[in-house]
Automatic annotation (TrEMBL), chain A:
InterPro entries registered for this protein in UniProt: CPA3_Na-H_Antiporter_A, MrpA_C/MbhD, MrpA_C/MbhE, ND/Mrp_TM, Proton_antipo_N
Protein name per Swiss-Prot or TrEMBL: Putative monovalent cation/H+ antiporter subunit A
GO BP term (any one): monoatomic ion transport
Domain (NADH-Ubiquinone oxidoreductase (complex I) chain 5 N-terminal): residue spans on this chain: 68-115
Protein localization: Cell membrane; Membrane
Organism: Pseudohoeflea suaedae
Residues in NADH:quinone oxidoreductase/Mrp antiporter transmembrane domain copies: 131-417
Topology of the protein relative to the lipid bilayer: Multi-pass membrane protein
TM spans (from-to): 6-26, 33-49, 77-102, 114-131, 166-190, 210-235, 277-295, 302-321, 327-348, 369-391, 411-432, 452-475, 502-521, 568-590, 605-624, 631-649, 655-677, 689-709, 748-766
Automatic annotation (TrEMBL), chain B:
Main localization (coarse): membrane
Gene Ontology CC, one term: plasma membrane
The protein, known as: Na+/H+ antiporter subunit D
Organism, scientific name: Pseudohoeflea suaedae
The organism's place on the tree of life at top rank: Bacteria
Domain NADH:quinone oxidoreductase/Mrp antiporter transmembrane residue range list: 149-440
Keyword annotations of the record: Cell membrane, Membrane, Transmembrane, Transmembrane helix
Length: 790, 523
């Protein structure tokens, strides 16, 4: 393990520190705290930027320390191209989001708390992408789910927010458990606990019989987090969160954690039939479903949310396609998407904030009022649509390079990509054109350009998309190529540039654009067609989630009603049945039944008589018509047992038994008469038989096992010792007494405590009356003042 | 040995002739201290204004003694003191190993939190009728159970803690409480009686009650004696104590009825005594028989965890829901016992310590939450998040810890248990643990969204302003436990190391036996 690098630790800790100081800072500076708070992520950005030369030269940076040495868990990071670019996106876009939040939530009473949550998330996300150790990855992974839960439910007074927050927690929580299981399986089959070691063990992983299991479990984590169909439904619902959250967590960063995981797994898990089937199928489905659902929406944020779903599908599909350019295409698209989608969300927030609505049908003609936002939106739409001179164009070209091959599977996937890309093109331009161009529409608020804090983010990201494309050789050298190399597990160089090469990819781009324009012209009828289809289906995973949760609650109510009916007699019956099974089953299964004892030929007549009396008592209990007779008859049996103790030389025991029997009969009789029970037993015959069976089985079990135990020769060295030393050392002639007060005096001490505590418990039962005011004494308390007595 | 005068007896045949070293007294000190403090508190029963101060000071003292004990065991390994200086196995031996010391320490901290929390939670009537004496005597029983090296003596401490818990349970005499206490008393007495009967059989077979002595005799006796039935009987008795499926009825029937500080104490400590006894008797004394029963325990474990969490999901009353979550956690620990491997046992031990702290704290938090929102019912409470932010976040932390999510202490034992199950190919058990974690997440997320996030109903009766102020003692009691779960979530190393060593001590018992019989050749 490389040396402990203090600066990196600080960079990892900075967001958490920011989370601590944010509320105080906001209290003092109001929304202007954004300018100070943005320094935290900016410092992190700069810190990671310093790694760029080294990483782009092909080496990875590692460091950390032993976290839980006893469990072989380290806190260690592994920063290669993939981690580094993610870290830069998180801290870079994070900086812009901090600005944006200051403008968007200006004057909000809980702005400080909001910042805290955002920074907690940032810290978690940063940790996630640089984690080397499995468990560290898992810890940060779950932290992003928890912070996302808090952020989606930020507006906690609304039912929809709470529902969406819980839904996100449940879906991503399910994925988290799947991820944990997957990581533990990988740990088991490879013996390594670090991602940096895992990437070199591809052959071992792929050859393992548990490969498929590990793969499915890990993908379960990735697919829920990255909203792949059919787990996509939580993401559009997460739009209940304030817009900065949508822009940051639910488009640019957190939802890409799943894609990150898939890309990270690629060197070890990729290049198999399973990998190259599961990923394109799920990714492709998600792409189509997401883009179709996006067309149907009229809320700007929901349109964007569904295109995020489809974009994530595209990334997963490309990562798993397995051809030469496919992984690079996934990487380029991921970078492009982070920029244009982050910008788009912030712009949607600007429109909502300034015009008072984000329903696309109620917007129009904002370009003069909000010129900067308009320009940024057009830039984002160009990139999203894959048009030059923006970075989205490069990624689109690379996608078609990767997909286009002359086999049916490739052609099919190409068509999927064209449809998905085309539909996203439509949505992107709908958002960039419809609210801004055309006739000015009266909006709930009179629109102005958003304040500096709110346009600086989208403008920067939109410009970034342009610059990255224009200076693509440099950008590829430092950003794209290292990241692609990390994903594919071997050094690769990305060369795609704005200069178009005549060929199939360019042609496919043109096809996409033509398709998109056609759809755009008919977008309203497309929208109603999709809506009609969905109504006809009438069911979706979102509804399924509700059915699942309410079904679980109903199921658990039913189970609990059976398992916990609330009646003591049922509890007692089950308990004694368990006792009977516990005694009889092992005796039979493990062959521990006693040999039948021989008839005691030397039994004296008076001994037999006593046993006979016991049986008579027992018979009388059963035959008794009323309870009092039964109680007294029980006493007969007890006294007979006491006599047997006496006859066989245990006078102490015998006396105790006499006392206990007498007292039990008296107490039972007293209690029974006070309880106002019916005089006789009214159980139906069926229940009587059942109860009798349990009782007889328990009795038989205890007896049989006692016989079995007594058949083992008794080792009397303890009693021999007690007899030998009771008089000479402990000075007591009665061995039983000496055992009680000396040899085992500690037991007696405990029993004395029991008696004392019982007394106190009874006192409180007698004296304390329910519903009494504090400090009031019971009327039968000797210390109670006399005036309180009646 | 028919000597007429004691002067002619060779004492060294029967006793340790040298006085017990002072340092060895440490092993009985937690029990002695609690009994003494309990007695003093009982004598000063009517000075209700002094009860809390004396009780809290006594519990601080207990924690210091527990810490010293744990420190010594970590430094020097297990040690033994025999009562009355009789030679073992004739006198009662107290033997502490790492498992006992670790659990004693954790239970001491939980009791201290309860003592502090109880200062304002228990009114003067409750104090007059024995809250603090019951608490201290309960701790005498708990500590005695963790520290004794004698099976019958273990039973005695079980009785002490059972009757003390009964006293705490009925304190207040509300109708609901009496109903709960009746079920609690009946079902627990059956369990305790089974333990006694089993111990009678054990004595009949082994002729000894000393644990180390049993360890020595077991290999020979195993050839002939019917041990399986005995071990099954112990399994049932302790499973009842631990509230395992299908003999868990008493817990949901009673835990929501007493004062919340009492529920917290019970939820944290009592069921874990059953788990401890399973570890001590089944795992340590009868490992071969336990292995034979591994699949039975695994089925019980899965049943317990799933039934528990489903029960929690069904509840509308937070206190009842937490009661079912206690049961669900018992299933987790049983899973570790079912696996029986060092890693599984370590997971179970760590889970037990985590659960002692977290379950107590959750009851505390739910209690404060119910008070400030006016109801324990999910359908009627709400609005805690805006009015009591810190409480809401503390509760969320505890809930997530319960669900086994990072960065809280619940994560680690869950990971250890799942890994241990996967290591031996018990996929379904690992799956059951994960599904339980998932359902727990749904349960606690739902409770938090409904009771904390959701605003109170507009037509709800107005809250008493006096109830909105949370007493400082409640904050401290809840705070110290919450801090523990966060700290040990972030820095679990010491606890994981202790759990692993404690688990090893249960499997390789030579140092335990040697501390009782120094001359014995380890098996």
């Amino acid at each position: 393990m490389a040396a402990l690098d203090g600066m990196t630790i600080i960079a990892l800790g900075l967001p958490f520190i920011a989370a601590l100081v944010a509320p105080a800072l906001v209290r003092r500076l109001g929304h202007n705290a954004a300018w100070v708070l943005a320094l935290f992520p900016f410092f992190v950005f700069v810190r990671f930027l310093e790694f760029l030369p080294e990483v782009s030269a092909g080496s990875a940076i590692t460091g950390g320390f032993q976290w839980v040495p006893s469990y072989n868990v380290s806190f260690s990071w592994f920063i290669d191209g993939l981690s580094l670019i993610f870290a830069l996106l998180i801290s870079g876009i994070g900086t812009l989001i901090v600005f944006y939040t200051g403008g968007y939530l200006k004057g909000h009473a809980q702005l400080g708390r909001f910042y805290s949550f955002i920074f907690l998330f940032m810290g978690a996300m940063l940790g996630l992408v640089i984690s080397d150790s499995f468990l560290m990855l898992f810890v940060y992974w779950e932290l992003t789910s928890i912070t996302s839960f808090l952020l989606i439910g930020f507006d906690h007074g609304r039912e929809a927010s709470r529902r969406s927050a819980l839904q996100a927690l449940v879906v991503t929580g399910l994925g988290g458990l799947s991820l944990m299981a997957g990581l533990l399986v990988v740990w088991n089959i490879t013996g390594v606990t670090q991602l940096s070691l895992l990437v070199n063990l591809g052959d071992e992983v792929r050859a393992s019989p548990f490969y498929l299991m590990a793969l499915i479990l890990l993908l379960g984590g990735a697919f829920t987090k990255s909203a792949q169909f059919p787990f996509h439904f939580w993401l559009p619902n997460a739009m209940e969160a304030p817009t900065p959250v949508s822009a940051y967590l639910h488009s640019a960063t957190m939802v890409k954690a799943g894609v990150y995981l898939v890309m990270r797994m690629n060197p070890a898990f990729g290049d198999t039939v399973a990998w190259e089937t599961i990923l394109p199928v799920f990714g492709g489905t998600t792409l189509i479903v997401g883009s179709l659902l996006a067309i149907r929406q009229t809320d700007l944020k929901l349109m964007l949310a569904y295109t995020t779903v489809s974009s994530l599908g595209l990334m997963v599909m490309m990562t798993g396609f397995g051809s030469e350019h496919a992984a690079a295409a996934g990487v380029l698209y991921l970078i492009a998407h982070s920029m244009f989608k982050g910008a788009f969300f912030m712009l949607a927030g600007n429109i909502d904030h300034e015009a008072g609505t984000r329903d696309i049908t109620k917007l129009g003609g904002l370009r003069k009022l909000m010129p900067i936002s308009f320009l940024a939106a057009m830039a984002a739409a160009f990139s999203m649509g894959g048009l030059p001179p923006f970075f989205g164009f490069l990624s689109k070209e690379e996608i078609y390079y990767g997909l286009w091959h002359a086999d049916p599977w490739s052609i099919f996937m190409t068509v999927v990509a064209i449809v998905g890309n085309g539909l996203m093109f439509v949505v992107g331009f709908a958002i960039a054109i419809k609210p801004f161009l055309g006739r000015e529409v009266k909006t709930p608020k009179h629109a102005h350009e958003a304040p500096l804090l709110m346009w600086i983010g989208p403008a920067t990201l939109a410009t970034g998309g342009l610059l990255a494309a224009v200076f693509s050789p440099i950008f590829h050298q430092y950003v794209s190529s290292p990241m692609v190399s990390a994903v594919s597990g071997e050094a690769e160089e990305v060369t795609i540039s704005l200069v178009p090469h005549i060929g199939m990819p360019l042609l496919l781009s043109l096809v996409t654009i033509v398709f998109a324009v056609l759809v755009y012209l008919k977008v309203d009828s497309a929208r109603s067609a999709i809506a009609a289809t969905l109504t006809a289906i009438g069911w979706g995973p979102d509804k399924g989630f509700d059915q699942f949760v309410s079904g679980m609650v109903r199921l658990s109510r039913r189970v609990t009603k059976i398992a916990q009916p609330g009646q003591l007699d049922i509890y007692m019956t089950v308990t004694f049945a368990a006792v009977a099974v516990t005694l009889l089953a092992p005796m039979i299964i493990f062959d521990e039944l006693p040999a039948m004892p021989a008839w005691p030929a030397d039994a004296e007549i008076h001994e037999l008589a006593v046993i006979l009396i016991a049986f008579i008592g027992l018979g009388a209990v059963i035959a008794a018509k009323d309870r009092l007779t039964a109680i007294v008859s029980l006493g007969i049996q007890g006294f007979a047992v006491a006599l047997i103790f006496m006859l066989f030389g245990a006078p102490d025991l015998s006396f105790t038994q006499f006392m206990v029997e007498t007292l039990s009969v008296v107490i039972l009789a007293l209690v029974m008469t006070r309880l106002r029970l019916t005089l006789s037993d009214h159980r139906p015959t069926g229940q009587k038989i059942g109860d009798a069976t349990v009782a007889i089985a328990c009795g038989a079990g205890f007896m049989l096992y006692l016989l079995a135990v007594t058949e083992v020769p008794f080792r009397s060295y303890l009693s021999d010792f007690f007899i030998a030393y009771s008089k000479v050392i402990a000075h007591g002639a009665n061995v039983v007494n000496v055992i009680i007060v000396d040899f085992r005096g500690t037991d007696t001490l405990g029993e004395i405590a029991v008696v004392m505590v019982t007394g106190l418990a009874i006192l409180s039962l007698i004296r304390v009356r329910p519903g009494w005011k504090p400090g009031m004494l019971a009327e039968n308390d000797p210390d109670a003042p006399t005036e309180e007595k009646k | 040995m028919a000597a007429t005068s004691s002067h002619s007896v060779d004492l060294s045949q029967a006793m340790n002739v040298d006085p017990t070293p002072l340092a060895d007294w440490l092993v009985v000190m937690p029990v002695v201290w609690c009994l003494l403090a309990g007695a003093i508190l009982l004598m000063l029963r009517k000075r209700t204004e002094l009860q809390a101060s004396i009780g809290i000071v006594a519990l601080v003292g207990l924690c210091l003694l527990d810490a010293a004990l744990l420190w010594r065991v970590l430094e020097e390994g297990p040690f033994t003191m025999v009562m009355g200086r009789w030679l073992p196995p004739f006198g009662i031996a107290f033997t502490v190993d790492l498992l006992g010391a670790f659990f004693t320490m954790t239970s001491g901290l939980v009791a201290l939190a309860a003592g502090i929390f109880g200062r304002d939670d228990v009114d003067s009537t409750g104090r007059r009728y024995g809250f603090y004496p019951f608490l201290l005597l309960l701790m005498a029983g708990v500590s005695g159970a963790f520290l004794t090296g004698d099976v019958f003596n273990l039973y005695v401490w079980f009785e002490v803690l059972l009757i003390s818990s009964f006293g705490l349970l009925v304190l207040g005499s509300e109708r609901e409480q009496i109903d709960g206490a009746t079920k609690y008393a009946f079902l627990n007495l059956v369990g305790t009686t089974l333990f006694l009967v089993a111990t009678g059989y054990l004595y009949g077979l082994f002729g000894t009650l000393n644990m180390a002595d049993i360890l020595i005799k077991a290999p020979e006796l195993r050839q002939t004696a019917p041990l399986m039935t005995l071990v099954c009987l112990y399994l049932l008795a302790f499973a009842m104590k631990a509230a395992a499926f299908p003999v868990n009825f008493w817990l949901p029937a009673s835990y929501h009825t007493p004062k919340l500080v009492v529920s917290g104490l019970f939820g944290g400590l009592l069921t874990k005594i059953g788990i401890y006894a399973l570890l001590r008797v089944l795992v340590m004394l009868f490992p071969i028989e336990r292995a034979e029963l591994g699949w039975v325990i695994a089925v019980l474990a899965a049943g317990t965890m799933l039934l528990g969490v489903l029960g929690a999901l069904a509840q509308n009353d937070t206190r009842r829901a937490v009661g079912f979550l206690v049961i669900s956690g018992i299933g987790m620990m049983l899973a570790g016992i079912a696996l029986g491997s060092p890693s599984g046992l370590a997971g179970a031990i760590l889970y037990a310590a985590h659960s002692m702290v977290v379950m107590t704290a959750i009851y505390f938090a739910a209690g404060i939450g119910g008070r400030v929102s006016g109801s324990f019912l999910l359908s009627r409470s709400g609005g805690i998040y805006p009015s009591h932010l810190v409480l809401a976040f503390a509760t969320l932390a505890l809930f997530l810890s319960m669900a086994g999510l990072p960065p809280f202490s619940g994560l680690w034992p869950k990971v250890m248990l799942v890994k241990a199950a996967l290591d031996v190919g018990e996929w379904w058990l690992a799956g059951a643990i994960l599904v339980t974690g998932f359902l727990t997440t749904i349960t606690v997320g739902r409770i938090w969204a409904l009771a904390y996030w959701k605003p109170r109903a507009a037509d709800a009766e107005p809250l008493d302003p006096a109830s909105q102020k949370v007493p400082m003692t409640s904050v401290i009691g809840l705070g110290m436990l919450t801090v523990l779960t966060v700290v040990f979530g972030l820095w679990p190393e010491p606890l994981i190391a202790i759990s692993q060593d404690a688990a090893r001590g249960l499997i390789d018992t030579s140092s335990f036996v040697l501390s009782v019989f120094p001359g014995e050749v380890p098996q």
